[in-house]
Amino acid sequence: MYKQQLTKEQAHQKAKHYCAYQERCHSEVKEKLYGFGLRKSDVEELLSKLIEEDYLNEERFAVQFAGGRFRMKQWGRVKIKYELKQKYVSEYLIKKAMKTIDEEDYLATVQKLYEQKLKQLKGETNIFIRKRKITDYLMQKGYEQNIISELLR
Fold it and tell me: What are the residue boundaries of the RecX third three-helical domain, all occurrences included (predicted)?
């Protein structure tokens, strides 16, 4: 990505800007620092510095990511958990982030998505195909099977 190799100080400044712009997880920042052409020891040192300076906070990232994906993209817990795991966020922080999603909002959102999909499928006369399509849609959004089954009853 970068033609010339950045000095540790230049990389530190760029990383601070990168983290200040939007919450980041450790793996994203690590990847960025390696992209600047830094060695492993320098990357580890800069990561520690960014954490000390509070530019990098994995808990804050996880909570913000979960809340944002739920509110903006209306993702379910399954999909959010999966995405956080892909970013190497710890199980403990994933659980903590999941707790920040309000249960009433969560159920209201899945209900709303269910009703929207039902309206779209008005023309579908076969009830089994309709249920299958709704199930597929909600599972793809990341909602739990038990909640979907409850809605279909």
Answer: 104-152
